[in-house]
UniProtKB/TrEMBL annotation:
The keyword Ribonucleoprotein does not apply. A zinc finger (TAZ-type) spans 16-95. The keyword Membrane does not apply. This is TAZ-type domain-containing protein. GO terms for molecular function: zinc ion binding. Residues 16-95 form the TAZ-type domain. It comes from Trichonephila clavata. Keywords: Metal-binding, Zinc, Zinc-finger. InterPro entries: TAZ_dom_sf (IPR035898), Znf_TAZ (IPR000197).
C-alpha cells in the first residue's frame, strides 16, 4: 500500500465505517453541513453551506440567481447518487420526491403540462420550494 501525501491526510476525515472522506469534496461538505449542529464548526465551508441552505430556501430570483443555480447543481448531484431512503442531506428527499412526481405526471399525460412553474411565469408566482425545484429540474431537462 502506498503512503498518502501529508496534505491529503490533513484534508481527510475518518467516518464511522473507517472510510476516509476528502474534506474538500463538495458532496461530503453538503452532507456534513446538513447534519452539523455546531454553530462554531471548525470547517469554514460548513458555515458557508448553512448560509446557502437559507439563501436557496428564501430566494425568489429563480431565473437569474447564480448562487441558487450552483447550490441546486450540488444538491441535485447528491440526490442523484444518494441511495438512502431517509437521507438527512438538505433537499435530498425533496428533490427525489419532486422529480418522481414530475416523471409520473409526464407519463400520465404527455398532452397536459407537468405540474410546476413555467419559465414564463413571473417570479412572484412561485409559491413554494417544490415549485422552485420543479423549475430547476425542468430547466436542466432532469426529468
Amino acid at each position: 500500500m502506498f503512503p498518502l501525501p501529508a496534505d491529503l491526510v490533513e484534508r481527510c476525515v475518518s467516518i464511522s465505517d473507517g472510510v476516509k472522506r476528502d474534506l474538500s469534496d463538495p458532496i461530503y461538505l453538503l452532507e456534513h453541513a446538513s447534519r452539523c449542529d455546531d454553530l462554531n464548526c471548525n470547517h469554514p465551508m460548513c458555515i458557508t453551506l448553512k448560509a446557502s441552505f437559507k439563501h436557496f430556501r428564501d430566494c425568489l430570483d429563480f431565473c437569474s440567481c447564480e448562487k441558487c443555480e450552483r447550490f441546486f447543481d450540488l444538491a441535485f448531484l447528491h440526490a442523484s447518487i444518494c441511495e438512502s431512503e431517509t437521507c438527512l442531506t438538505f433537499l435530498c428527499e425533496r428533490i427525489a420526491e419532486v422529480r418522481y412526481n414530475m416523471v409520473i405526471c409526464k407519463g400520465e399525460s404527455k398532452k397536459e403540462a407537468v405540474a410546476g412553474p413555467s419559465s414564463s411565469k413571473l417570479i412572484s408566482e412561485y409559491l413554494n420550494l417544490d415549485e422552485k425545484l420543479c423549475f430547476y429540474l425542468k430547466k436542466r431537462n432532469l426529468i
